[in-house]
């Protein structure tokens, strides 16, 4: 496994300086991603999943910074690399699809101009070459090449999101980070986008980090899953195992939070309460206030670390093994 | 057969366009929409964005009036309001829960002043003490207690789930008989959705209201409602008992919707989508069946005439000529 590792994030801490203090939105996060692997990161709003993506891409805003940790990608540490070097890797080696395709495209430039801009910014290419590449990418996402002349407002939401995917993949990156790429789309469009990503992944062989709050979707499409809560990864492992046998109480709660289309109709629990304030996270386990199993020990000391459970599974719960 | 809380019959709502390019045209938001909701029953209205489901709720709430067709509430046909009193009486009976808990509470008002409004407008409180007691009840019913703690806060001081609970408390304040819930949980975090859905089920049980539950999520519809109506491009395509429709969908669009819905149990070996494309423009809707351009089973006949909503018995109706 080790030699096929493409990305390794180690003890990454990142956050935002605010008037009220420092909000550590990503707190000691570690994971690795193999070549061609599909990692799903699930979490609720404010859990730090987007900050994690932006930190890996070194796209954090001015008021945010990476405090410590490393992002090893192709034997280089992205977390500490000079900004100019990051620029050389971004898009050619790792690219990102943003959440809102509606606002991520420039409304006054045609699709073709935006696609070729990406090529010219990162590679020496003639106008004809760039144009050809753009047409080829559009057809890969099932959009007719004569749409290159179209402006974003002339495309539907699903088409815009496919243009975003074409744009991210135009320089054939090894890693594609997708931040809620289908959240604003209808289920049928969402499904067709997911099928497209799967097809492209098997033909082009890139790895994917797919970030969303929609766990039911992630379980189905991911190889591995990481569950984030209040800035930390609380559980990770193979998607199937996490779904059939979730170990962390938060993961269990999430799995009991979406009703099913099949099987008996039973009353489901969800999770009481809401996530803690990251300005002043509570001592002990950050989920303890909402956890139905929490004991006094859970509310004291440092936050529990991810412990290996075997079978590529990790869980950050002090009570793991005692819960049944 | 039990009494009907709500009956729609052939309701049409078009929005005329006034721009030069589309002069004389209209958005066909609702065409031939008809269904009945039993008193104390619950019906899910499922569809994608642009299918006309929110327009349907707004027409039932009479935020705008239908162009034609019948609307009967509690056995009384809806007629144009002749006075504010009539309008108020109708709105007391039919209440709407909005989708966006962030946009539907006035940010400059406290929860008290937001929640007082329905009691004051409808004259439901007898003096200050009674009003206070009712405000307390309203909040505690939706799981926000101690009520006094929430009453003095502003919306921005509440989480999304708490705001939606305030919205629901406001809806139930006037003791409506019909509640139209327009995607009440779609903007909430996953972990708190179940809490709000369970609370709505409990409130329905306790208050004996009827629900029209609008959603794009088939599994959520199954959890909440006994009957389901699936809309596409302004028309109802299939209607029937939820379990039967989900287990054995007859309309090709409903099958498409089902195959596209996330279902972790099905594993990676799931079937691929049969139909492609997206929902059509409602300015120039397709002739005949509105789904025919995307339908993998379409025949020449399908583009010629709009299919009837055929009755198949067992409460099931489908707008398709094929099965």
Strand fraction band of chain B? 15-25%
Strand order of the largest sheet of chain A: 6-7-8-3-9-10-12-11
Rg from Cα of chain B = 21 Å
The overall average pLDDT of chain A, rounded, is: 91
Write out the strand line-up for the largest beta sheet of chain B, numbering strands in chain order. 6-7-8-3-9-10-12-11
**From the helix content, strand content and strand pairing of chain A, which structural class follows?**
alpha/beta
The quaternary state of the protein chains shown equals heterodimer
The poorly predicted ranges of chain A are: none
DSSP summary: helix tally of chain A: 10
What's the helix count of chain B?
10
Distance between the termini of chain B: 28 Å
Query: Fraction of residues of chain B in helices?
Result: 25-40%
What would your notes on this structure say?
The complex is a heterodimer of chains A (324) and B (323). By secondary structure, chain A is α/β, with parallel strands linked by helices. Chain A has a domain at 2-93 and 175-183 and 206-259 and 268-315: P-loop containing nucleotide triphosphate hydrolases (Rossmann fold, 3-Layer(aba) Sandwich). Helix content of chain A is 30%, strand content 25%. In chain A, the strands form two sheets. Chain A has an eight-stranded mixed β-sheet with strand order 6-7-8-3-9-10-12-11, with helices on both faces. In chain A, strand 1 and strand 2 (21-34) form a beta hairpin. In chain A, helix 4 crosses helix 5 (127-140), helix 5 (127-140) crosses helix 6 and helix 6 packs parallel to helix 7 (187-204). The radius of gyration of chain A is 20 Å and the shape is globular. By secondary structure, chain B is of the alpha/beta class. Chain B has one domain: P-loop containing nucleotide triphosphate hydrolases (Rossmann fold, 3-Layer(aba) Sandwich), CATH 3.40.50. Chain B has helices spanning 53-60, 84-93, 111-121, 127-141, 147-151, 160-173, 190-207, 218-224, 242-247, 252-260, and strands at 4-16, 26-38, 42-46, 68-73, 76-77, 94-97, 178-182, 210-215, 227-232, 235-241, 310-313, 316-318. Chain B has an eight-stranded mixed β-sheet with strand order 6-7-8-3-9-10-12-11, sandwiched between helices. Chain B has a four-stranded antiparallel β-sheet with strand order 2-1-4-5, covered by helices on one side. In chain B, helix 4 (127-141) crosses helix 6 (160-173). Chain B is globular. Chain B starts with a strand and ends in a 5-residue tail after the last strand. The mean pLDDT of chain B is 92. The interface between A and B is large, with 40 and 44 residues.
